From TrEMBL:
Keywords for this protein: Oxidoreductase
Protein name: Retinol dehydrogenase 14
Keyword check for Transport: no
Any Pfam family the entry gives: adh_short
Lipid metabolism found in the keyword field: no
GO MF assignments: oxidoreductase activity
Length: 240
């Protein structure tokens, strides 16, 4: 293992990290977009570039990183991109007039963080559009739900002491250890039987057909909007 510094809250940090990776590693066989946050919308937190923090870290940071490393992944085929989403994507919405939460979030008073759910839906749409754009390149892309894993994802939540008591039965019976939660990620990253089956969604090391239908036009528009937000269109214009 070679630890390297990457702050997905900063697009500058993502670009610096990608530059270091491209400099030091001639081959990239697997990219796993696993990092994430769940920050309550009542905190009104933004990334260092001014984006709603759940959307900025969970989607935009990974979107930029993937695109910056994609040429090297294409040169290292067969290779894979694994996007860690969540079943909570089914509770998300993509409102292009409210990606930063300027208008607030529907369901903000409920237990589930609506901004987090939206970011997980963005992960799913990213995987769908990415799989189309890399078709025939020797790179496969998969999205997955790792399950309910015991980790520090909700470290920013306003958890009270009595919540731990109420939550204990759920933790004992339903939560997975980090090792258990990583199994589907490893399956998507290494299983030979998945080669050429790009764009699929997995849960419990098996293909899972999402309950909601994904509009390919929305996936395409999200890609284009994300390119503008992270400055990839500026990169293209500078190379022309």
């Amino acid at each position: 293992m070679i630890p390297m510094l990457l702050d997905l809250e900063s697009l500058e940090s993502v670009r610096r990290f990608a530059k270091e990776v491209l400099r030091d590693f001639p081959n990239i066989n697997v990219l796993i977009n696993n990092a994430g946050v769940s920050v309550p919308v009542c905190q009104h937190r933004k990334t260092k570039d001014g984006y709603e923090i759940n959307f900025g870290v969970n989607h935009l940071g990974h979107f930029l990183l993937t695109n910056l490393l994609l040429p090297r992944l294409k040169d290292s085929t067969s290779s894979r991109i694994v996007i860690v989403s969540s079943m909570l994507h089914e509770r998300g919405t993509i409102d292009f007039d409210n990606l930063n939460g300027e208008k607030g979030f529907a369901g903000a008073g409920r237990r589930m963080n609506p901004a987090y759910c939206n970011s997980k839906l963005a992960n799913m749409l990213f995987n769908i559009e990415l799989s189309k754009r890399i078709e025939g390149t020797g790179v496969d892309s998969f999205a997955l739900c790792p399950g309910f894993v015991y980790k520090n994802l909700f470290r920013y939540s306003n958890v009270k002491w009595y919540h731990y008591i109420l939550f204990l039965p759920v933790a004992l019976f339903f939560m997975r250890t980090p090792s258990q939660g990583a199994q589907t990620t490893l399956y998507c990253a290494t299983s030979e039987e998945l080669e050429g089956k790009s764009g699929l969604f997995f849960r419990n090391c098996n293909f899972y057909g999402p309950k909601m239908e994904f509009d390919p036009a929305v996936a395409k528009k999200l890609w284009e909007v994300s390119e503008n937000m992270v400055g990839l269109n500026n990169d293209k214009s500078e190379t022309m």
